[in-house]
Amino acid sequence: MLYDDVTRSASLGEIPWSLASRGYRSLRTLWSSTKVVERNSALPYPDVQVLTPLRLLLHEDDIQAVVHAHTDFIRRKDHLEPVVTVTLPFLCFAGKAMYTGVLAHEFLHYLHISRVLLRSGPFGLSQGFGGTVLGRLVFDDATRPRASSVFKGSYLVSLVEKGFKRMMTDPILLGKIRGEWMDRGLPMATVRSQDLVARFSARDLMSLHFPGAVLDRVGEMDAGEATG
C-alpha cells in the first residue's frame, strides 16, 4: 500500500490530518480486499497506491462522473510496473464491499493489459511507436476478461457483473463525497475522457513488467479460448 501522496498533502496543508488519519486507518480493510481478490483468482494483486485528489471524469456530453479507481503505472528501478490507484475520498467514505468490488474490477483491467502485452508485445499497447499507450484500455469495460473466467465462486463475479454500477452510483457514498469533500473545497482534478491516455517512451514500453504467474494465467486463458 503506497500512501506517500496523502501524507505529503496533509503535511502541506492541502487536506486536514484528520482525513489522512481516517484513510490510513482504512488501509487494513483495503488490504484485506486485495486478499479476497487474490484468494478468488489464485494470482498476486498489484501494488495499490492512494492519491489524494477527488477525480472527476468529464465526458463529451458534459456529464461528470466520479472516478474512484484506475490502473496506473509507477517506475521501479529499471522497469515500469502497473499499480491500481484509488482516491482518498473513496478510501475514506466507501466500505469493505465497495473496496472489494472496485479492486476486483480494476484487477480485470490489469489482466487485460497483461494479456495484450503477452499477445502482441509491448508495442501492441501503443497507438504509435513510443507514443500514446493504453488510451482507454484502463477505463473501458469492454476491454477486460469476464469475471467468471478469472474468479472462482460467485461473490466477486456478482460484485463485478451485477452490483458494480449500483455501488459506484450509491447515493450515500456520493453524498458523503459531495458534503465532506467537494463542499469543503478539498483537492479535485478534472479529467476529460479524451485525455485518458498514458504516454511512455519506447524504453518504458520495453520495461513494462508483470509477474510470471499473471502472464502464465492469461496465456492459459488465451489457449482455452483458442481451443474452446
How does the SSE layout of this entry go?
Layout: H1 4-11, H2 17-41, E1 48-51, E2 54-58, E3 64-67, E4 69-76, E5 79-87, H3 88-93, H4 96-120, E6 132-133, H5 155-168, H6 171-182, E7 188-192, E8 198-199, H7 202-206, H8 212-227
Helix content: 40-55%
Mean pLDDT: 83
- What gap, in angstroms, lies between the N and C termini? 38 Å
Name the structural class: alpha/beta
Please describe what this structure looks like.
A hairpin with a 2-residue loop joins strand 4 and strand 5 (79-87). Helix 4 (96-120) crosses helix 8. It is built from 8 helices and 8 strands. The N and C termini lie far apart (38 Å). The chain has helices at 4-11, 17-41, 88-93, 96-120, 155-168, 171-182, 202-206, 212-227, and strands at 48-51, 54-58, 64-67, 69-76, 79-87, 132-133, 188-192, 198-199. With 228 residues, the chain is α/β, with parallel strands linked by helices. A 3-stranded mixed sheet has the order 1-5-4, sandwiched between helices. A 3-stranded mixed sheet has the order 3-2-7. Strands 6-8 form a two-stranded antiparallel sheet. Residues 127-142 have low confidence and may be disordered.
